[in-house]
Amino acid sequence: MADKGTDEDRLFVRDGWRHYRRTYSLAEVRWGLVVLGVLILIAAWVFWKGRHPDPTLFSDGTALLKSAAPPPADRGPLPKGLVSAGWREDRIAQFDPENLYVKIDGRADWFKSFGFRRLYGVLLISEKAPATTIDVEMYDLGKAANALGAYGGERAPDVKPQVTETGLFHIARNALYMARGPYYLRVIGSDESPAVTQMLQSLADGLNTGIKGEPLPWAYGFFVGGLGIDPGKISYFVENAFSFGFARDVWAARPRGKDDDLELFVAARASAAEARDLAGKLHKGFLGFGSLAGKQDGVPLVKDQFLNAFTAVASSDRWVLGVRGAATKEMLAKELQKLQDALAQAPQALKDRAQPAVEKAGAGDER
């Protein structure tokens, strides 16, 4: 049995170098030497790195602020050479239907209703005053009609756009708005300085030249060519025309401007049967907000109880023609006759171009 005093000495060692092992394993010695060698190598590496540091550790970060030139594909349809002297392009960005909300949170669904496919954006920065910027947004909406619809939806009522053979545009204060081919563009400056205004005009010229357009949709030939209505007063409804879920692919115009209730509308369908069906649904829908008010040349009239105005919808072959918000029956009869005359006199080439964008309700992919 171990002596008690001896046991206490073994638990509380007073001499730090005292030990009780009489022999050591040769393997332990070898592993100890290996660990010592590794530690020496690490110390040598640390010493060498201290004498040869990475040059980027002493950088002031300027290189990180410089925009890397994106590959050409990143530009998409954005024309090259947008900037003039005194401006530079910043990083180009793209957004698809999944992440569009990152760029325009709260309005993504509105653009999606016009067939949104992709947004191409680039920020232009003044070299003299970096705080002065111009944000260029180019929305690919798939079709010219969709682009014109988005343009009309954001255009102020008192704006008269400039018209080209392939699109519309206008400059308002510090912003440029444009519909050209299937693209809708919003170009917003950070202020209303002369430098921004001058650059917006330069961008209007460059975008009109650099973006391949296409002839304006058939409804412009109908309303502008046939009725002499200002192109800026024409609107396009991909869906939900007059707040009716079934009313898709409808063109409308307000001859007296957006501040007046009078509205003319037209839609093309694939057959006379489809046109009659849409006309019947529209009449029933308008009747939900008013009451029957007789007929005009066989066309039933509806008097809106809220607007105290008259509405009528008629079909002719594969066309739907309508007048909404007429102050009197006489005005309604006059405007409806204008629509019927314009359709009768429309060139056959124009009628051939008037094809329905959506064959049936709910075909959201066929815009």
Give a description of the structure:
The chain contains 11 helices and 14 strands. α8 crosses α10 (329-345). 29% of the residues are buried. It has 2 domains: 65-210, Protein Transport Mog1p, Chain A, CATH 3.40.1000; 218-366, Protein Transport Mog1p, Chain A (3-Layer(aba) Sandwich). By secondary structure, it is an alpha+beta fold. It is elongated. The strands form 2 sheets. The protein has a 7-stranded antiparallel sheet with strand order 1-2-3-7-6-5-4, sandwiched between helices. Strands 8-9-10-14-13-12-11 form a 7-stranded antiparallel sheet, with helices on both faces. The longest helix has 26 residues, at 26-51. Helices cover 34% and strands 25% of the residues.
